[in-house]
Design goal:
single chain; mainly alpha; Outer Surface Protein A, domain 3; 2 domains; 3-stranded antiparallel β-sheet; 6 strands
């Protein structure tokens, strides 16, 4: 028995209806549905998704313009199969579409995916169901002798393009020689912020986040000495001193929550 024959009639009609809503140019509507109602459903579904895309990716949509944005939303609806049913996940699904199914059109900027990802991160952090770490953290602890803890609400990112500067007035055709390093984070007041960083700060955060949690733990000073070695610096003490100041600055921003508390 074929798959079509095995599907009940109401499910067949439902699938045809949904396929038409997703991609009306390629999939005809069920014959017994009133055209006026179909148009209302088509507009409602498209406008809801397009509205969420526009609000979640305002800079990208402004650069693309209304017509190209609408075409991109149409293609997203037609080609992408979402894994999450929630509206708040539309942004993540849109990023997945740009990574996997999107085909650039003439005039699309090379930085399209990177800019979309940067804009998505802000929403993702804003709605992340993660609390700022309090338990097991000494917020005033010594960041050199203890193990600094990076907040799970701090995301260290790198891009080929300076995504935080892109807009109508600045749209480079090729990426700069040096990548852009950013830390996007949510502080104790649940405000989403970003910090323009550099390769050393990104490396420091990566080493701290990958440090073992079981004894013997790696102290902040040990991590900074490793960075000095990686940089080929002989003035290790100067690197550690500068790193200590950087760690204090990251703690003041709530990117570093403090040091791991030592059990009594």
């Amino acid at each position: 028995m074929s798959d079509c024959a095995a599907v009940p009639e109401f499910q067949r009609v439902q699938r045809q209806f949904v396929a038409h809503l997703r991609d009306p140019d390629r999939h005809p509507a069920p014959a017994d549905v009133e055209p006026r109602r179909l148009r209302i459903y088509r507009e409602l579904v498209f406008n809801n998704i397009a509205g969420f895309i526009r609000s979640g990716f305002p800079v990208l949509c402004d650069i693309l313009g209304s017509s190209r944005t609408d075409a991109l939303v149409r293609d997203f609806m037609a080609r992408h199969r979402a894994e999450a049913p929630y509206f708040l996940e539309i942004g993540r699904e849109f990023i997945a579409y740009l990574q996997n199914e999107y085909e650039p059109a003439a005039g699309d900027p090379d930085f399209l995916l990177e800019l979309a990802h940067y804009e998505w991160v802000e929403l993702a952090l804003d709605v992340a169901e993660i609390d700022y770490p309090v338990a097991g953290v000494d917020p005033a602890g010594d960041l050199l002798s203890g193990r600094p803890l990076v907040s799970p609400l701090a995301w260290s990112l790198s891009y080929r393009y300076p995504v935080h500067r892109l807009g109508q007035a600045y749209q480079p055709d090729v990426p700069p020689a040096q990548p852009t390093f950013l830390v996007v984070y949510r502080n104790r007041g649940d405000e989403v912020k970003f910090l323009e960083a550099n390769a050393v700060t990104a490396r420091l955060l990566a080493l701290l986040q990958s440090a073992p949690t079981a004894p013997p733990v790696r102290t902040g000073a040990a991590v900074l000495r490793q960075i000095a070695d990686e940089l080929g610096r002989e003035d290790v003490d100067a690197v550690v001193a500068a790193g200590a100041q950087l760690l204090d600055e990251l703690r003041a921003l709530d990117i570093v929550a403090g040091v791991a508390s030592v059990p009594a």
